[in-house]
């Protein structure tokens, strides 16, 4: 049976839904049911429920807050994956484009040099390193710009929808490039990897995002055109929207590693469009 941790988050929620449609037997736990930094509780959970793989969707994802809460970020993003990998079952772990510094101009390969710019990125990279050195079986799947259409989710899509319904103009950064990724598509890919048994091999890094690339301005323009075309979207520079944590300017991930598993992500525009049809 598959255990989904962080089940209250965007990806955890989507993974639960997808397990149901794919007929995968699973148990799921949100933070109140299983704190992944509590190794003894995690070990007990895995043993008592006959878990044969952990899909770790839990993470400290508050990128700016992490700059001030270094211990919390490392506990959840680095120490906890290390503990989960030591429980004797394979781990499918999710990591981030923020392990890169964004100075590239072509998509990052799975073996491109990492150089995180933020505490969040550093803590996620520390988690990757711990897993790669653990000798455990499993997968580290890096992704980027994750969003879900679930109204309760805090993400760029829902923020843009809210602003478009209440403002005449929205100003959005146009000099950071990446690939928006629908949580449901990421969940589907992770579960297909699980069904193919990819988690039983030696720990390796894969990349999954929706295909194509765009700026936050392009993404906002596509959302707002669908919602309220009379709301103007104005491109601005990162320097005009200062944040505590530095973000990579370019974080497009090469999807070549997915070919080994026959997974072909759809374009981000098609994924976004699908959220209006559900
Ligand atoms: N969101 C993005 O744009 C993005 C981009 C690249 C990579 N990723 C990665 O993708 C994965 C999924 O992200 P997401 O967007 O689904 O994040 P999310 O919506 O923030 O969900 C993360 C979940 O983890 C839970 N959590 C935090 N600490 C925990 C702990 N100690 N024990 C158990 N659960 C804990 C959170 O619970 P609380 O809400 O109670 O804190 C939350 O429900 C993460 O590994 C993230 O690093 C995300």
From TrEMBL:
Its EC number is 1.1.1.133. One of its GO terms (molecular function) is dTDP-4-dehydrorhamnose reductase activity. It is an enzyme of class 1 (oxidoreductase). One of its GO terms (biological process) is dTDP-rhamnose biosynthetic process. Pathway: Carbohydrate biosynthesis; dTDP-L-rhamnose biosynthesis. CDD domains: dTDP_HR_like_SDR_e (cd05254). Residues 2-277 form the RmlD-like substrate binding domain. It catalyses: dTDP-beta-L-rhamnose + NADP(+) = dTDP-4-dehydro-beta-L-rhamnose + NADPH + H(+). Binds 1 Mg(2+) ion per monomer. Keywords: NADP, Oxidoreductase. Catalyzes the reduction of dTDP-6-deoxy-L-lyxo-4-hexulose to yield dTDP-L-rhamnose. Belongs to the dTDP-4-dehydrorhamnose reductase family. This is dTDP-4-dehydrorhamnose reductase. It comes from Sutterella seckii. The lineage of its organism: Bacteria, Pseudomonadati, Pseudomonadota, Betaproteobacteria, Burkholderiales. The gene is rfbD.
């Amino acid at each position: 049976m598959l255990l989904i941790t962080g089940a209250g988050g965007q990806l955890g929620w989507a993974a639960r839904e997808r397990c149901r449609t794919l007929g995968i037997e699973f148990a799921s736990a949100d933070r109140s049911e299983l704190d992944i930094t509590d190794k003894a509780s995690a070990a007990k959970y895995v043993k008592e429920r006959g878990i044969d793989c952990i899909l770790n969707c839990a993470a400290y994802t508050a990128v700016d807050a992490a700059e001030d809460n270094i211990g919390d970020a490392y506990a959840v993003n680095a120490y906890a994956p290390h503990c989960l990998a030591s429980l004797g079952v394979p781990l499918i772990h999710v990591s981030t484009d923020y392990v890169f510094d964004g100075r590239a101009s072509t998509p990052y390969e799975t073996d491109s040099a990492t150089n995180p710019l933020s505490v969040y990125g550093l803590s996620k990279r520390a988690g990757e390193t711990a897993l790669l050195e653990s000798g455990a079986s499993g997968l580290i799947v890096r992704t980027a710009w994750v969003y879900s259409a679930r109204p309760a989710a805090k993400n760029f899509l829902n923020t843009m929808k809210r602003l478009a319904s209440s403002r005449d103009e929205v100003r959005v950064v146009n000099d950071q490039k990446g690939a928006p990724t629908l949580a449901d598509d990421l969940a589907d890919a992770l579960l297909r990897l699980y069904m193919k048994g990819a988690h039983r091999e030696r720990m390796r890094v894969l990349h999954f995002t929706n295909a194509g690339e765009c700026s936050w301005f392009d993404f906002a323009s596509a959302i707002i055109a669908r919602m309220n075309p009379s709301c103007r979207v104005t491109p601005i520079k990162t320097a005009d929207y200062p944040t505590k944590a530095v973000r990579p300017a370019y974080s497009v991930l090469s999807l070549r590693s997915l070919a080994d598993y026959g997974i072909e992500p759809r374009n981000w525009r098609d994924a976004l469009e699908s959220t209006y049809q559900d």
